[in-house]
Amino acid sequence: MSALVEQSRSAATHRLADAPPIRDEAVARSWASLSVVEDIAALAGEWRALEERALVTPYQAHGWVRAFAETVGRAERMVLRHAVLRDAAGAALAILPLVITRRNGIRFAEFIGGKHANYHMGLYDPAFAAGLDAAGARLMLAEIGAAIGGLDAFIFVNQPTQWQGVPNPLAQLAGGPSPSGAYKLALAPGDAEGSLRRSMSSHAHKKLKNKRNRFIAHGPSEMVRARTPEEIARVIDAFLRQKAARFAMMGIADPFAPPAMRRFLERGAAPEGDRPPALELYSLDVAGQSVATYVGAVQGDRFSGMATSFDMESEVAKTSPGEILLIDLIKLKCREGFTVFDLGVGEARYKTTICDERDDLVDTFLPLTAKGRAFALFSRAKREMKRRIKASPVALKLAHRVSGWLRRGRKPAAEE
Predict the structure, then answer these.
(1) Domains along the sequence of the chain with CATH
(2) Residues 6+ away with beta carbon under 8 Å from 262
């Protein structure tokens, strides 16, 4: 049974100790009530209704969050709290899907999804978001913190500064830019060649053509979208096998290894009744064998790349099958009428080769208590250091070298 905490307008004047200063609340507040719900299933109808008109990334769509919460969240015993703000008529204005984390005695709230979600944001009615200034956003978080109870801070990373041309309310409270941006490509529906010609250099086109010619020499190929349970299982098998080999080679723990991650992929790729699935799984097959895979999240007319892999042990690997699959997928999404294709957060050569735009991302660290203030300062400094390292080719090269030294001689994770 879900726990529901209702906060009326009169009760919302509560402030937490050491919370950032808030201006006149009568001016800042643009919602009538606030509730916090544990069970996402109880919000299904309201969430989907808001989603139809909201500013929402693919990672806050109900299908994505529910699949993650009921698989990974359940397996890791995540404490989930979904904050809902409503107007006077009871209609949802915003939903913030949060996970409460305890670390070193500090209890803080983050957006659900962790590193598996490229964008961290709430769902907002566009007019509500446009009218919410920094003071209103700060008040909103103070009230949510009071409703949840016992929080020391909010830590929100990788937040887009805007979405669909509307400023992200919580980005106004940012402590600084995120270490990395997110790469994207605007698609002209029905004109894949034009979209790619605009973003890719002639040199990149020539290199890709040469790779494709070498790829074709390995035999007939096919891009397969997994739709049936059997296809979904096959593509997930290939994806997890390829990822495991890649992370083993790198000498680091595989974030896709836990069984709950497989259940998440299976759940997300399955349609919910007459609704399309939150995740789409693709495989590039040669002679019936997967040589590359791609996992994407879908919301509206935007396709977000979550993860990709390729078979490193195959001779086909020398022809960059992952890039070939990506280009074929971009062409497919153009034909299907999508207008944005993003490749997520983080730097990679193939991203800068294919994409000509970025989503700027920021981090917010909002303390609610004295110890939360110290934790927020530490978290902010850590993210800033990571950003500076990534911005410096020399520092980044040194960091990779040190990381390699640290990994050298370590036993594989499974043996530790």
Answers:
(1) 4-179+360-407 (no CATH), 188-338 (3.40.630.30)
(2) 236, 240, 256
